[in-house]
Amino acid sequence: MQAHALATWLVVDWSGPVDTLSGQLCDAVEALAQQLAAADLLQRDREALEHDLLLWTDDLRRAHLMANSLAVAEFRSACQDDPDAQEAFASRDEREIALWMLAFRDKIFRDVELHLAFQSKTHGKFWKKHRIQPGLELTRERVRLEQFCHAVAQLYKKSGGGDGVHIELSERRSTAGLMDAMSSFQLTLYVEGPVTALTHFTQSHFTRVTTRVALESALVYHPATGEVETVVKGGAKNHGAMLELFGEHVVQQDLAPERIEPQRYQLNALRDDLQPYEDWSVHGVDRVRLRRARLAPAARSGVSFTVEASPDKDQDDAISIARKALKVEHMFEAEYHLEAATVIVYMRAADGVRAGHFSFNIRASGASTIKNLSLRNQVLARKVLQALMVIDAEDDFASPVSVPREAIAA
Length: 410
Fold this sequence. Notes:
six-stranded antiparallel sheet, globular, alpha+beta, 10 helices, about 25% strand, 3 domains
């Protein structure tokens, strides 16, 4: 805390009892927030204090977003050869671990933050995967990395992009520090976007300002397999252009990228019922329902529609409601395809813990929100989809580079 930008403003007795420091700190920050309204505070000091308070709030927000099992598993993996970190983890919960990492291992915190941010965009609208040569060496020279970033910025010039750029390089390595299937390099690029107007509040006053919002792009390269993933706006041509620039500036080789099409979910397996082909009770699953279903006509002529159902597990689910609306007992392949669904999984009560549930979205195209679940629920979601024949047991919809290297107890 004493290294934070806000520390110079705080009046806290850090030598006091540990159990009172949290309350003292909250009171001190609240007092500073109230001080902004003081009439005798110089404008220069007011602006500086407001800036540091915003940094404080943003850091707390970042730590809060990283206080989850996915992030903590990444922290543990990255710090497995760090005895001080391991000792700190032993006596702290997820929230405290996230704060500790932000305070004492800020580079690792940022690398994990960028990695999880990228993973949340995979299989999304702006994501594509290609295969290029494996084993390429990426430059770490700042000049060449910035040249790459400036070249990418030119892709947005026609839409009003500016010249400002920022690039960050982060990497993940295996336990032994060697490059394997779990290892990857990530380049995160920020490009000055078009001029836009924002309405916001400054010191409780409503105002309108013009600014340039940063356009974020990213590239992840897996040396062991040659797979490269890109998240970039502007369509397929910009993905191709970004890979070409990556070859020119970062690895200094001509690349021959081959598109890797995403695996599809066989959602039509859910159209008639959700009876499992495997016993999912061994995983603690009680029942599975479709909370929402998007159906599209097989023929081009026709109207797609979405059906929503109650979250109550004793009520008809979305697919049952859809069948009644269509006035048929089964939806044959020639009529409607199940295009997207929200799956809700109800768990059995166990060991004095009340029964809970979780949900995730899936699309026939291969996109899903499974990666946003906890580690345990990610495994359960895949078990459920396998039991319903939506994916085969050998299908790997969660790329090994996206699953933390800790053992996951299903």
